[in-house]
């Protein structure tokens, strides 16, 4: 019984070493808080904006590169990939508002984990915005 326990413990610490994290702690998921756009944001199509997020207290990031994709009605709009190949720890990336029908959208930040902004508006011309 004792030798079984030792064997099991050894196996656990071995797999922990292989996986790079303690076997008994849940996988660390980092969902950086998107600080822009917010619910009050209005983007005008074809204009440039910065998507920003909070990079304080990042875990050991396994995938350092991020992706920003448009999201609408709960669906990720893969045909509107706004930015990719930037470093997730940069905390911001400049994007061009996609040429879409006006409405409510959000952006998904993908990297070490996925996170999305609140819904905000995209309008077709500056005259439609406040
Ligand atoms: C985005 O941020 C960069 C770096 O702070 C800045 O140089 C650039 O002007 C910003 N772009 C917009 C559209 O605000």
TrEMBL record:
Pfam families: Kre9_KNH
Range of residues in the leader sequence: 1-20
Keywords per UniProt: Signal
Every Yeast cell wall synthesis Kre9/Knh1-like N-terminal domain range: 36-122
Record's protein name: Yeast cell wall synthesis Kre9/Knh1-like N-terminal domain-containing protein
Species this protein is from: Coniophora puteana (strain RWD-64-598) (Brown rot fungus)
Origin organism lineage: Eukaryota, Fungi, Dikarya, Basidiomycota, Agaricomycotina
């Amino acid at each position: 019984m004792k030798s079984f326990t030792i064997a099991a413990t050894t196996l656990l610490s071995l797999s922990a070493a292989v996986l790079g994290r303690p076997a008994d702690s849940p996988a660390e998921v980092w969902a950086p808080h998107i600080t822009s756009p917010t619910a009050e944001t209005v983007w005008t199509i074809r204009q440039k904006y910065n998507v920003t997020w909070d990079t304080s207290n990042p875990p050991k990031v396994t995938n350092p590169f991020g992706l920003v994709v448009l999201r609408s009605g709960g669906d990720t709009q893969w045909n509107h990939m706004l930015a990719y190949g930037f470093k997730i720890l940069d905390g911001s990336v400049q994007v061009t508002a996609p040429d879409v029908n006006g409405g409510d959208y959000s952006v998904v930040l993908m990297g070490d984990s996925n996170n999305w902004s609140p819904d905000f508006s995209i309008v077709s011309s500056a005259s439609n915005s406040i």
